[in-house]
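Reading a protein record of the kind used here takes only a little practice. The record below shows the convention in full:
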Amino acid sequence: VMNLIVGVNWAQTGNRMTRTEYFDKYKDLAIHEMVRSEIPASITLAQGALESADGNSRLARHGNNHFGIKCHQDWYGKKIYQDDDEKNECFRKYESVEDSYRDHSDYLKTKSRYAFLFDLSITDYKAWARGLKKAGYATSPAYAETLIRIIEEFDLHRYDMKGLSDGTASKAGKHPH
């Protein structure tokens, strides 16, 4: 089955990335961020895929923003504007996808409303997904369930196990599921 994409932008950027291709392309980056910041790779990958339409959204293609992170008052970097909950909202624009992944980790690590997530087991993706929703990461009422479904459908939890074996801090035993 072939996807037929209509529109000028698609002709300029080539074919749409599939969800499987997205995970194959960015799994090592998510594992690296897990080791660096203690955020489950499965959560990072599921959020990245969901928020960026598998790397195909305008924010991802033109702003390297894979997580839908808005500018907020403490952002002094480049900006890209797009309608979201309101018209013409300011989103962070990055030099690379790697910068987007790093900023996503740093954002969760430094915003107090997400601090409680780091008390959860690094392998408990369900608790992380529900916690992100509870902390207000996204406005969709089904956000946690959507992340969990993506993680389970694509077996992304295996990347959490890889992150642990690659040297992530031993938070796995803190709150076993």
DSSP finds eight helices and two strands in the chain. Residues 19-37 form the longest helix (19 residues). The helical segments are 8-13, 19-37, 41-51, 58-63, 97-110, 125-134, 143-153, 157-165. The longest strand covers residues 79-82.
